[in-house]
Automatic annotation (TrEMBL):
<dbReference type="GO" id="GO:0070043">
    <property type="term" value="F:rRNA (guanine-N7-)-methyltransferase activity"/>
</dbReference>
<dbReference type="InterPro" id="IPR003682">
    <property type="entry name" value="rRNA_ssu_MeTfrase_G"/>
</dbReference>
<keyword id="KW-0808">Transferase</keyword>
<protein>
    <recommendedName>
        <fullName>Ribosomal RNA small subunit methyltransferase G</fullName>
    </recommendedName>
</protein>
<keyword id="KW-0963">Cytoplasm</keyword>
<dbReference type="Pfam" id="PF02527">
    <property type="entry name" value="GidB"/>
</dbReference>
<dbReference type="GO" id="GO:0005829">
    <property type="term" value="C:cytosol"/>
</dbReference>
<keyword id="KW-0949">S-adenosyl-L-methionine</keyword>
<keyword id="KW-0698">rRNA processing</keyword>
<dbReference type="InterPro" id="IPR029063">
    <property type="entry name" value="SAM-dependent_MTases_sf"/>
</dbReference>
<keyword id="KW-0489">Methyltransferase</keyword>
C-alpha cells in the first residue's frame, strides 16, 4: 500500500490497494487555520477521486456493487432505506460518495498510523443500509468491516446484501454505539471508525472514538462547510482521547458539490465513563 501526498498541481497520487494500482489526479493542496484553534494548521485536500476509485474496481467488485444497488432499490420498496429511487443516482450519490472518503482515509493512515493499510479492522457506526461501510468492504476485500446498526429491519437487509454479494469480510452487529463502546469485545479494537450522515460531530465523537484503538483514525463524512460544527466538537474529541488531524475536501453529488472528510487521530485511551448510557450523547452533547 502506498499513497503519496503531492503539493504541486497536476501531480498524481499513486493509489494502490488489493488488485489494482491507479494513478489519480489531485489538485493543489492548501492550508488554513481552523476558527477557534490557535495551535493547529489543517490541510484541505481537494481531489476528484470518487469516479476514479469506482473505475479502478475489478469486474467482480463492480458486479457486487450492481447486486447491492439492485437489492437496495428492491428492499427500499417495502422499507425506508434511502430517498434515492434510481440506480444511476444510487451509484452517484451513495456508491461514489462512499468511495470518496477512501483516498484521504488511506493517505492519512499511511502517514500517521503504525500499521499497513492492507488488513484494517474498520467499524461503520450507524451504517443504515451499509453506507459507507459495505462499499468500503467491497473495494477493500482485505479489510474486516463491522457494520453497526440499531434497527433490526436494516440489519436484516444488510445480512441479505452481504450474502447476496458473497462477502466474507463483513460482520453485521445490531446494537447501539453507546453499548458497543462499553463492550470489551469491541472497545478500542478497530483501526478505523467511519460514519456518514449519522449525527453532529460532537455526538459522533462519543459514538465512534471509544471503538478506535490508540493510534487509529476516526473519519466522519460531513458537508461542504463543517468548520463551525467541528469547532463545537473540539472538546468532545479531546475528551475521547483524540485530536483533529485534517479536513479533506472531495467531490460529491451533494447539493454543494463537495463533501468534507474530517479525520481524527486517537492519541490516548478513552476514559472509562465514555460513551455514556444510550441516548445521553444525543440529549446532552459534550
Amino acid at each position: 500500500m502506498l499513497v503519496l501526498r503531492c503539493k504541486a498541481p497536476n501531480i498524481h497520487l499513486l493509489f494502490s490497494h488489493g488488485n489494482f494500482v491507479k494513478h489519480l489526479p489531485v489538485s493543489k493542496l492548501r492550508t488554513f487555520r481552523c476558527a477557534g484553534t490557535n495551535t493547529k494548521t489543517f490541510t484541505t485536500v481537494t481531489a476528484d477521486l470518487n469516479s476514479s476509485c469506482f473505475e479502478a474496481l475489478t469486474s467482480r467488485q463492480k458486479e457486487q456493487i450492481n447486486l447491492y444497488v439492485d437489492a437496495l432499490l428492491q428492499w427500499n420498496q417495502k422499507m425506508n432505506l434511502t430517498a434515492v429511487k434510481e440506480a444511476n443516482e444510487v451509484r452517484e450519490r451513495h456508491i461514489k460518495d462512499s468511495l470518496s472518503i477512501l483516498p484521504p482515509l488511506l493517505n492519512s493512515y499511511s502517514l500517521h498510523c503504525n500499521t499497513l493499510c492492507d488488513n484494517l479492522r474498520v467499524v461503520d457506526v450507524g451504517t443504515g443500509p451499509g453506507l459507507p461501510g459495505l462499499v468500503l468492504a467491497i473495494a477493500c476485500p482485505g479489510w474486516e468491516v463491522t457494520l453497526v446498526e440499531s434497527m433490526n429491519k436494516r440489519c436484516v437487509f444488510l445480512k441479505h446484501a452481504v450474502g447476496l454479494m458473497g462477502l466474507s469480510n463483513v460482520q453485521v452487529v445490531r446494537e447501539r454505539a453507546e453499548n458497543l463502546g462499553q463492550d470489551h469485545c469491541f472497545r478500542e479494537q478497530f483501526d478505523v471508525a467511519v460514519a456518514r450522515a449519522v449525527a453532529e460531530m460532537r455526538i459522533l465523537a462519543e459514538y465512534c472514538l471509544p471503538l478506535v484503538r490508540v493510534g487509529g483514525l476516526f473519519v466522519a463524512a460531513k458537508g461542504h462547510d463543517p468548520h463551525e460544527e467541528v469547532r463545537k466538537a473540539e472538546r468532545a474529541i479531546k475528551l475521547m482521547g483524540a485530536s483533529i488531524l485534517e479536513f479533506c475536501s472531495v467531490e460529491s453529488q451533494s447539493p454543494y458539490g463537495r463533501r468534507t472528510a474530517i479525520i481524527c487521530l486517537k492519541d490516548c485511551s478513552t476514559p472509562a465513563k465514555y460513551p455514556r448510557d444510550p441516548g445521553i450523547p444525543t440529549k446532552v452533547p459534550i
